[in-house]
Amino acid sequence: MTDFDYQLRISKRAKYARVCVKTNRQVEVVLPLGVSTLEADKLVQQQYDWIIRALGRMQSQSPVSTNTQPESIHLPAIGQRIRIQYGCKQKRNTMLDDDVLRVRLSKADKHVPKLLHMWLKAYAKKYLPNMLAKVAKDMGSSYQSVSIRLQKTRWGSCSHKQSIALNAKLLLLPKEVLHYVLVHELAHLVHMNHSPQFWQYVAHFVHDYTKQRQALRELSLALPAWLLL
To answer: Are 117 and 132 within one domain?
Structure first.
């Protein structure tokens, strides 16, 4: 499941279909008038690697500013808000004390986002595997393994070897949206595609999946700045 959605634009002037990535990280697909909208999905899949590289370049070129460093991290998936204290005197780079994350570096240090990324990934390992196991039990599904990553463009994935990868950023989603993502990936154990059968299967466990899918698209474009660095 990608971490980006695309806008579709029908153009009378366009002579051929094309994909472009705008400076605000919005992916746009332009189709000539009369071309089936189904071609948009095909084009995105064909140029997927190029889109990912383009988005990655934009993220890496983003300037680091103390304004992007968070004062707190909200994790709706587990109902927790963690305050951050910078410049703490301690041996470890990050230490969680109750609901306060103590960071050794000063707020202005350019390496702060990297430390927060590492902390979030480690913290997600304490929660996401258990959450996935519970949803899998409810669905009567089984998988071989689960891994936690911090990917730029995917919320999760399921391989043909029944290995599921989940993005640590899932903790920043509302519980109902997170549940949809978990169901989505587990559904790929049955249907390794996005066919009508796949969506029917998802709908069996998430009746309002279209609502949650739209919410995920909107949230993907509203992630905190420090996660994009």
So the answer is: no
Task: Report the alpha-carbon distance of residue 30 to residue 193 in Å, rounded.
Answer: 24
The two three-digit tokens of residue 85, written as one number? 């204290």
- In this prediction the pTM is 0.74
Alpha-carbon distance of 80 to 32, in angstroms, equals 47
Angle at 58 between CA 225 and CA 83, to 5 degrees: 15
**Strands of the 163-167 sheet, one edge to the other:** 145-149, 163-167, 156-158
The answer to whether residue 221 is domain-embedded is yes
Residues 116 and 163 in one domain: no
pLDDT digits (tens, 9 = 90+) for 15-72: 888 888 876 677 888 999 988 888 888 888 888 878 877 777 665 555 545 557 899 9
Low-confidence ranges of the chain (pLDDT < 50): 64
Beta strands in 115-225 (DSSP E): 145-149, 156-158, 163-167
What is each CA distance from 180 to 146, 175, 207, in whole angstroms? 17, 9, 10
* Beta strand spans in the chain (E): 6-11, 18-21, 27-32, 72-75, 80-85, 94-97, 100-103, 145-149, 156-158, 163-167
